[in-house]
Here is the input.
Amino acid sequence: MSSTLTGTPTPAAKAMTNGSGAAAVLAAGLGSFTLAATAIAADESSTIKNLMNFYHPTGPLSGVTTAAILVWIAFWIVLERHWRNRNVAMGRVGAIALVFLVLSLLLTFPPIADLF
Amino acid sequence: MEITTRGLWTLVHGMGFGALYLLACSGALVELWRRYAKDDLSPISEREEAFLRWYLLAMAVLAWITVLTGTYIIYPWYRAVPPVGTANLAGYPQRLLLSNPATSGWHSIGMEWKEHVAWLVPISITMAFAVFNHHRRNLRNHPELRATVLSFMVVSFLAAGIAGFFGAMLNKHAPVEGGPTIRVMEGESR
Here is the structure.
């Protein structure tokens, strides 16, 4: 069965498609990366830091995490709509998602985050 | 034997929800790796499938409760700013740690990493639950998807471990304490 990153519709194998799973995986990777990137941006820019201060007792962490969760859910909804009835190249999508996740893990480590 | 309200919340957050997540993680990893491999030909019963669904859902709920209690209940106590001229910083853990070069790293590296990396956990495990809930035993036919989900769960385990380790060390060097005291039981006096 042929598949591409953007997906190939496979109506005959609708119940067997990997599109929904791939959408969830890639969205999780992108959401995680958004969290790390927003945290760095809030650390570097006082404007973003103030913007992210959604709940004063928690400070910018409240905005950074809320923004990342919203972006994650938005990506998930969009990808799910595009891929749910398709088979996508799961190896490639999974690898991209994992790269984003590992980058997030590294970029949240302060000595690395402080390089930016 | 007494405990402060803030101390109790810290205990529930770390030793309760967080530690339980870490314990649960190893079980889910083994189950997903062992029973849902493509070359495992033994049939998966509906009972087994339902068990893992509920297990992953419970893990996702635990992960969300852990980060939400940490971020919105305990963290504000941790980062509270003392009034000008306060000499005793015991009630202000962040300031207490930063007041000494020997302990400041626990905040600047430990807490700074923990407060962000912990949020990768609910994202990853919610995704794992959603994927399993959608594919169930059909996951055997998608080995690459299963491998990716397993990898996310390993990273979530690592992230939860990092958060747990720094949580324990921070609480050792500058415990979050305060609020009304709860008397757990009466001790013997000599």
